[in-house]
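Hi R.,

Here's the chain you asked about this morning:
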Amino acid sequence: MPEIVPAILEEDYDDLKDKIALVRGVVPVVQIDFCDGIFVSTRTWPFSSGGGADEHFQKILNEEEGMPFWEDVDFELDLMVADAVENFDIYTKLGPKRIIFHIEAVGDLEEFKDFLEGIDLYIKDCIEIGVAINPATSLEQIFPLIPHIDFLQCMGNDKIAHKGVALDEQVYNKIKILREKFSDLPIAVDIGVNKITAPLLIEAGATKLIAGSAIFKTDDIIGTIEKFRNL
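And here is the predicted structure, written out as tokens:
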């Protein structure tokens, strides 16, 4: 049974909270897309409302409040931002279960590998670390990082940080290559996951499906999630 993670790509804090409420108690984990308008053109909360100056973001960092419904759901933070490595400590203060870096945004890969190796053991015990890779990026770049991460996220299209984007079919083959080379590696797919592509992604070797539009644009969110789980 694949893990199903709803993806939330929202500019406004209240919209973010409303989306989480729709799957609260239905799934254990949701993915929140952080988009800074620099690495990607899209801006989401908190960057769309002042970044570090956002009222809710500051209160969460200061432990005056938690992430929406944090008592009922865990979060994985998809960091589509230019400062993920530099501000890693800030993102950890949001209390995530997982943090995802994008290989295209981290700069020098040898330095990034050193960063991964140097993450405090306490943080590694509390937070799973993943790396995302676009279809156009060669898989070979990710191979040296595999021993230092908990999972890999294959982006379904190079057009990241947008809703309703179709899956690039070359992703199927990339997943097959990864599964053959790293038999135990958890592999997630984000973008283009729907009722047609999901079975093919699982057959290729994906273990986690991340879906936004396919879940939130349906009239039966709970039923849709269950159908994905039963693939």
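One quick note: The mean pLDDT is 96.

Cheers,
M.
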